[in-house]
Amino acid sequence: MSQGESASEESSSFDDEDFSDMPGLEQVDVQAQRQEMAAELAIDFRDLPMGTLEDGAEPDYAHAAELKSRALEEAREGHLRKAVLLASDAVQAHPGSGLMLVCRARILIDLGEISAAKRDLKLAVKRSPNSASAYHCLGDACRLLCDSEGAVKAYRTGLDLEYRAESARHLTVMEKDVKEQARRDRAVREKVKVDIKPGKPSSAIPGVHPAAQGFKPPAGMANPFEVLADEAANLSPQMAERLMGDNKVASLFNDPDFAAKLAEASNGPEGAAKFANDPEFLKNIAAFMGVMGQKK
Fold first, then answer.
1. Does a structural domain hold residue 271?
2. ∠173-174-177 over CA atoms, to 5°?
3. For an engineered disulfide with 211, which of 110, 201, 217, 284 has Cβ 3.0 to 4.6 Å away?
4. Based on the structure, what is the number of domains in the chain?
5. Cα dist from 184 to 14, 53, 287, 294, whole Å
């Protein structure tokens, strides 16, 4: 055997032993696609990254802009979950930018994740208070969640910054909804006039204790917020339909802040006392109870 033939055989043997079990390019592509799909399916819309920088780190403006552009391109092609991941990377790359959150929020709205979009936008208007887009988009999210009051506030601010005909049309409708809700609230208050006395449960609204009006329930007496939370978690189909038919109450079901407050208020006397004098929380509770107490 010649020296050339021996070298050829050694080379061939080396190729067979060391590369025969390596995946081809097509197999690598399939694996990458599977990993990408798994990441998209694993998205937790309740816990999306809101943008934090490690100590000493600097925002990467150029990279954030590139990621935002790629996210919008994926969204235009209908790859919304992939777009959310790219937009989240953009938020992380430039945490101080409200516009990166607006970008992700728009994609979330298209995906139907409105509550997640609203969380993004509430932070976006804080980070970029002069961004008309942030307020207009927040108005859209509030409107889709039946939060008429929130929509009115957001649209008004957005229109002050930049006029948009579509937002102006939505504002007109939302203002009518707010007026109608206020009229209904007044009617409920007139219909249910309660003589509240400390230490005695109200007879006019079953299950409602004076603690809901600023009093602390005596030891051994049911926490009214706990009662309400339990009822809300165990609604009959008929009651659920009635509640979702009310714009204000329907928005509460999609409001993570209200849910968190109700959970804390229903967790013992200390929690009840903490929120017993929170006017906004009590206003929401009153709206909830008003609809639940309506007769068919």
1. yes
2. 95
3. 217
4. 1
5. 83, 47, 10, 11
Distance CA 159, CA 248 (A): 23
Q: Please give the Cα distance from 112 to 7 (Å, whole number).
A: 64
Q: What share of the chain is helix, strand, coil (3-state, %, to 5)?
A: 70, 0, 30
Measured CA to CA, the distance from residue 188 to residue 174 in angstroms comes to 21
Residues in the chain: 296
**157/139 Cα distance (integer angstroms):** 9
- Residue 250 within any structural domain of the chain: yes
What is the residue type of 261?
K
How many CA within 13 A on the CB side of residue 238? 4
Q: Is residue 117 part of a domain?
A: no
- 48: tokens are 């999306």
Query: What is the model's pLDDT at position 283?
Result: 80
Interior/surface letters 204-238, b for 16+ CB within 10 angstroms, e for the rest? ebebbbbbbbebbbeeeeebbbbbbbeebeeeeee
At 288, the pLDDT band (50, 70, 90 cuts) reads confident
Of the listed ranges 108-112, 181-185, 269-273, the one predicted with least confidence: 269-273
The tokens for 33 are 């696609």
Examine residue 244 and state whether it is found in any structural domain, yes or no: yes
Residue range(s) defining the domain that contains residue 278: 210-292
Packed helices 114-127 and 132-144: angle between N→C axes, nearest 10 degrees: 150
Distance set, CA 90 to CA 84, 93, 138 (Å): 10, 5, 19
Of the listed ranges 105-109, 169-173, 195-199, the least confidently predicted one is: 195-199
How does pLDDT run across 180-225, given as a tens digit for each residue? 888 877 776 665 444 334 444 444 444 444 444 444 444 444 556 6
